[in-house]
Amino acid sequence: MFDLTTRDIKYLAGVGPQKASVLNKELGIYSLHDLLYYFPYKYVDRSRIYYIHEIDGNMPYIQLKGKIVGFEPVGEGRARRLIAHFSDGTGVIDLVWFQGIKYILGKYKLGEDYLIFGKPTVFNGRINLAHPDIEDPAGVVLSNMGLRPYYNTTEKMKRGFLNSNAIEKMMAAVVQQIQEPLPETLPPHIITEHHLMSLTDALKSIHFPTNPELLRRAQYRIKFEELFYIQLNILRYSKDRQLRYRGYVFESVGDIFNTFYHRNLPFELTGAQKRVIKEIRQDIGSGRQMNRLLQGDVGSGKTLVALMSMLIALDNGYQACMMAPTEILANQHFETIKELLFGMDIRVELLTGSVKGKKRKEIHAGLLTGDVKILIGTHAVIEDTVNFSSLGLVIIDEQHRFGVAQRARLWSKNLQPPHVLVMTATPIPRTLAMTLYGDLDVSVIDELPPGRKPIATIHQFDNRRESLYKAIRKQVEEGRQIYIVYPLIKESEKIDLKNLEEGFVQICKEFPEYTVCKVHGKMKAAEKDEQMQRFINGEAQIMVATTVIEVGVNVPNASVMVIENAERFGLSQLHQLRGRVGRGADQSYCILVTSYKLTDDTRKRLETMVRTNDGFEIAEVDLKLRGPGDLEGTQQSGVAFDLKIANLARDGQLLQYVRDIAQKVVEHDPNATAPENETLWRQLKNLRKTNVNWAAIS
Ligand code: ADP
Ligand code: MG
Fold it and tell me: What is the pTM of this model?
């Protein structure tokens, strides 16, 4: 078989060891196969010729046909350049060269027909084309010219004479070598059923499409394949897991759950909470091990859903464990849950880094005897010394702070892996969730408890401090509490801390009659907790902080969130911060303070925040603005997608489509043995072997 993966790029005509080394380092291209999978980032239509009288300085690359009517060298020394006046009968335009002047003068002649190609720009009020491509139009058949590919290159590549043009030439040489079809990477039944181009045609056409329709079909085929294998990989893993492990069966909803529901529950569940609890019940009663992601905007009442799921585990004779990313949050969950379970005979314990000595031993022992029914804690709960008598359900709160590896450690706490419910307030757009957590089922709480007033969000420039302070004073006088948050970004930590300290001093000066507390990540845990506690118990009216308060803390009396330098926060982070207020019945405010100078993207972020409180809408905008690689949660989970052509923000529909196909394949061929799928499983194995990122997706 014709195998391009084994052909070293350096033996391609015109490449050689030096250029090959640049390609290795800059783009990770080693073989002809790698090169072929380096796709153009844009195409320019060369089947059409423009007239000079129709062009302006804002056009993309264009093609003209005409004659050079005169050369004119201008400038001296470094400003020296050559101008050629070019005419097509409808007007005259300047072609400009800054280098290679002698060569140009020797090569091109006045009065001959040329086809020229370049991007118009405006200089000194005149339109010109700098360093255009020039060809002899004789023999050029426009309809065969098709679309011309453009490739991204780096500075180092350009210095090594590897510009887009050079890549195009190399690509043409590779395509030329493909005389027989490449090994197909999708089985015939999928190709026919979904009307896909063959791999060979697609690869040829994606570099050198003869018309836009062919390009579209080539791109579709390659995107299809890229997304399809990601989904197949995930679904295969979860099928494997399903076949290998049985889940504990929580058959009944019993006394504990019912007592809580009928006697203790302080309010009516929202419709969304009821629906999600039902989904969870079905899952944990099915005999399948549950792996479920619970998404719900901040304040949507996830804790209650977690608790009620844990009670079902207890009803069936199992223990439950809930893990939070910080000590403060674990504490808060512990307090909340103890309060909710008031009067019920259920032993709940808290295990964090600060639980030591005798108390810790007691908890360890209680877990082993099964006397401790619910364990709440931080990372401390996954230490090897913590063992359960019958752990049946694990809840992970604010998931994005936990990695895949930590999830796996929890699995080993019982003979069979316990059911896992992962909760997150970072709304992940559907397309991304399907790719990131494709093995998890997703439940969504899309409804806030009744009586909440939507938070009013205001954008204010930082030269209007007075009105800001007036608003703060008014709220505090009404008995409310205020957060003031400063950015903290690793690279400029010192400057940021200085900003925070200065802000703190200024606020203390401005509001001498109030108590102001201060929290930042550089503080010792105990000190941080103490400051936080002063705010939680109402002793301090104003808290000046960095983003350490971002996750989970619940202070219903806090009604104003001021975010300083809001331009330096990402959208989802702004939304998370805003979610710290608006938890009580009073009208809450979020004030985004920025400087006057804003980029378009920042403006868009701020507008989005002002316009909507809907976390999912915000997540979608965020995905479009930043791309999936940057989204919160993606780095921490160890998955960095290296999509070559598909785009999660744009190709959501295709992703859903290929997921359904992959699902069918896995259902019909659960053991991966069907002969018609041989290509699929072989290709999947290859991909798992070659692409490090794939391993992390499980
Ligand atoms: P999150 O989803 O952000 O973790 P919480 O679970 O902390 O939200 O809930 C936020 C607040 O809403 C809590 O004070 C909780 O008691 C309250 N709450 C939860 N469910 C309901 C409900 N159905 N009706 C009224 N209040 C509720
Ligand atoms: Mg929460």
Answer: 0.68
